[in-house]
Amino acid sequence: MTPDQENLSHSETLDDDIERLGIYQVYTGSGTGSGFLIDATHLVTNHHVVQPYRQVAIEMRDKTRILGTVRRLDPHRDLAVVELARAVDGAVLELSEVEQMRPKQAVHILGFPVGLPLSLTEGVISHPRQLLDEQYFLQTDAAINPGNSGGPMLDDHRRIIAVTTCKLNAADAVGFGIPVADVRRFIEAFRAQDAAFGVQCPACQVLISEPKRYCPSCGLDLESQHDFGEFFEIPDPHPLVGFVEKSLAGAGIDPVLARHGNHNWSFHIGSAPIKVWCCCSDHLNFSSPMAQTGTKGLNELFKFLLSEEHAPFAFDLNGTTVRLNLVVHISDVFASAEHAELGARVAQFIAKADATDNLLIHKYGCVPAPETQRDFLKGAEHHGLV
Amino acid sequence: MTSEWLQDSALAVLRAVMPIATLHLPQPIRRRHAIAPRDYGRRDRAIELYESGRFTDAVCEAFAYLLPGVEIPDLKDAPFVFVQGSARVRAHIEGTEMVLRSVLAALGPDSQATAALRFFLTRLSSTGQMFQPRLRGDEIALEFRDQLALLHPGKLIEVLQRMPMEADSNDTWMVGQFGVETPDREPIAPLDADELARALEIWNAHWSAVDELMTESRRRRSVRFLDAVGSFAAYHMRYTLPLFGAVRARLNEGADDFTDRDENPNKRDVALAKTLKDMRRFTSDELQQCLGHASYAINPLQEGTPSLLTSTLGSGNRMQTTGELRATGRSMEAALELISDYLDLLAHYTWGADVETALRAGLTLVSGRPWREAADVLWNHANATARVFGSHGEHDRDDEVGEDDDGASRYDA
């Protein structure tokens, strides 16, 4: 086997079994990113993926999410360690011992570009040690997109050679990774420390584990660096975020696990997917794309969907997908006296979505929507239909 | 025979190389909406009332803001009915809830019920709006219902502005489309004989002009020219003719595609060509059924502002580019863009009588004139209009304008 054939073989293997690798999507109220396991309960990602949250959601392959607690931040080198609420069984990738990469060496990037499922892109090292903003990066021509941040860059032997961090927007195919040597130092330092939470000083890398104005080691004015104050005191959420997350909590949904980027939330209640988003400055939408229309009995289905009995909720058809919707006007969100009433309405909506997808499937001949969690669909007997 | 053929042939060749020489921009048959200006103080008062817990008073004040000059009855006693085009809207306070309802249609034995219901679910029911279609028995209505304590005036005003317009736009065309009945719709006053004759003439001339402009657009393969032709095709009809029913629905559906500047130009070209064919396919009788004067309790148009005049007709990137077209001899494009801008301002916004007169005067000035002259005249007129009526314009500076001053005298054109 020639070296090229050997490389090709590794690449194919990587492509074939990426699903079992310990690389997961990280969700926050700012966006989504990628992260990779360093052991069964810890994940490394970018600092900018988790900032300014101390708790994030990590999505498994089966779409369930588990809570992650941010333990370490290195804002200067853009790295973070997240501790998972339970151990997971994804394969832990090895850190490369080779510190000197060479140009044209193959790079395989794994991550969740633009929120898509785990994807592999490939390219070569354009520069192994590119100086940018006074730091060294591994530069590659492989496609990097929003959502890839925090994911691993691998060599042909499936070893981590860098952590994806950014790309140049003004250029094509110019992406950057944090070199593996820096990643290793960060992980080793984390393992040697016992503070529950800490941030590394941008200047001297000493761990700061409580709010301080100046670094006790190098004297750096920390408040002038990377919004340092926010690491120890999370800013108050926007009133809209506060309303949604309080309402979700009231309905028994963990809002941290539901976060899906800026002013977006998504989760499942039973089998039904639910999405929450702001479409404009006036409306907050709760929507459950719960089923797809069948081919028979459409007249009866449509009459049921349009029936006044569903108010204040309403169904619509998005193509063939049946959605149950609740629209909240933003003026209501800012009328805090009415939050209890609206919160109860949100809880009713979630409960109705959970019950109705089963009804549509068993009574009206609908089929599960692509995002329906089929394992949680209740049988027809649940509705007294058999 | 031979000579006639030669003559026809020669004309055909001339037509192929000679683009349309001018546009005729007749006075509109559509009546100007005589609607009193809004008192924004009443809107603020409604919010104050709501915030102080006087929910019913807040609702009445919000209605008074949107329907100036209309006496609002006690909404608890009986439904208050107002007309918005072909839509009748009933507003009523039932216990602690405000209910707004406008019947769209009723399903009859001969209706294509499944198609109609699918349409309501797909096109009228939606996220991002507070009202939804609801079915009671066989009757489908747009409906909004909410507790008074949750009825911030901002929400009520939004629903009052959007729901009746949505009900109006889904009018008699549904009868032909789905075979439904329309039991609770407001009849539209038909045009008189003179208006109708003029409307048919305008209609035919307009689509002939659009046909020729489309040919020119395809010859030039210019997206900017396609933009202007598409705008002219839709806005001229909206400004000039009081359309409703199937014709308005089809025109608006097509215009959504061919005026969408984010869409692929080839698709827009195809959409415009299809709309042109569809429009020409309507018979005079069909067109007559879709022409009439509707009345609107709530201003169906947006309110025009001085800053809009400045941004459209004043010195800015858009006018600079139009000016460059004119300066480089591309008079047809420059004139067509300016005409489309004027039509946009007149078709989609309400203005004070002085601004409306000035904008109309601009179109009258260029109607029937060759492109080069039209471009020059309207360019100067646009600059003068922005100068006089735009933001910080002369019109606002009372100290500089004497009582006897005639605004029109300030025009260069």
In short:
Chain A has 386 residues and is of the alpha+beta class.
What does this structure look like?
The complex is a heterodimer of chains A (about 375) and B (about 425). Chain A has about 375 residues and is an alpha+beta fold. Chain A folds into three domains: about 95-180, Trypsin-like serine proteases (Thrombin, subunit H, Beta Barrel), CATH 2.40.10.10; about 195-230, no CATH class; about 240-385, Yope Regulator, Chain: A, CATH 3.30.1460.10. In chain A, about 25% of the residues lie in helices and about 35% in strands. Chain A contains nine helices and 21 strands. A six-stranded antiparallel beta barrel of chain A has the order 1-2-3-6-5-4. A six-stranded antiparallel beta barrel of chain A has the order 8-9-10-13-12-11. In chain A, strands 16, 17, 18, 19, 20 and 21 form a six-stranded antiparallel sheet that branches. In chain A, a hairpin with a 2-residue loop joins strand 16 (about 265-270) and strand 17 (about 270-280). In chain A, helix 5 (about 240-250) crosses helix 9 (about 340-365). Residues about 1-10 and about 380-385 of chain A have low confidence and may be disordered. Chain B has about 425 residues and is α+β, with helices and mostly antiparallel strands. Chain B has two domains: about 40-180, Yope Regulator, Chain: A (2-Layer Sandwich); about 190-410, no CATH class. Chain B contains 16 helices and nine strands. Chain B has helices spanning about 1-15, 40-50, 55-65, 115-125, 155-170, 175-180, 195-220, 225-240, 245-260, 265-280, 285-290, 305-315, 315-325, 330-350, 355-365, 370-390; strands at about 80-85, 85-95, 95-105, 130-135, 140-145, 190, 290-295, 300-305, 350. A five-stranded antiparallel sheet of chain B has the order 1-2-3-5-4. A two-stranded antiparallel ribbon of chain B has the order 6-7. Chain B is globular and about 70 Å long. Chain B starts with a helix and ends in a 24-residue tail after the last helix. Mean pLDDT of chain B is about 90; it is low at about 1-5, about 10-15 and about 400-413. The interface between A and B is medium-sized, with 31 and 29 residues.
